[in-house]
Amino acid sequence: MRTRIERMGDRMVNVFHLIGLFVIGAAIVWASWAEVFAIISHGGPSIKDILLLFIYLELGAMVGIYFKTKRLPVRFLIYIAVTALTRLLAIDAKEMGGSPTCWWLPAPS
Fold it and tell me: Mind giving me the DSSP string for the chain?
């Protein structure tokens, strides 16, 4: 009886993982296409748009690898963090105004 309940619990966890991965994957696809349409409406991409699309690409790759292997590759998280910090330092830091850029430098460590 106990093994049957454990198997049912394992199946429920696996179904939850699959549903969660599909929802996350759909959200990534939706957000990336929304960004593509915003790029088209602006008349062309900027470096900010390209870096954001690269972040979406890495998120999608990470979800795909997790779907196949059930392991979360830390390497992709590092790629996402580096790209996000590059985007922050290169693009968004100009818009921050009074916030010194050097405050963001310790973030990767």
Answer: -HHHHHHHHHHHHHHHHHHHHHHHHHHHHHHHHHHHHHHHHHTS--HHHHHHHHHHHHHHHHHHHHHHHS---HHHHHHHHHHHHHHIIIIIHHHH-SS-GGGGTTTT-
The whole-model pTM stands at 0.75
Assigned domain for 109 exists: no
Q: How many independent structural domains does the chain possess?
A: 1
Q: Does some domain include residue 82?
A: yes
How many Å separate Cα 52 from the centre of its chain?
10
| pLDDT tens profile 27-40 | 999 999 999 999 99
Its domain, for residue 100, covers 2-104
Residues 6+ positions from 48 with CB-CB distance below 8 Å: 87, 91, 92
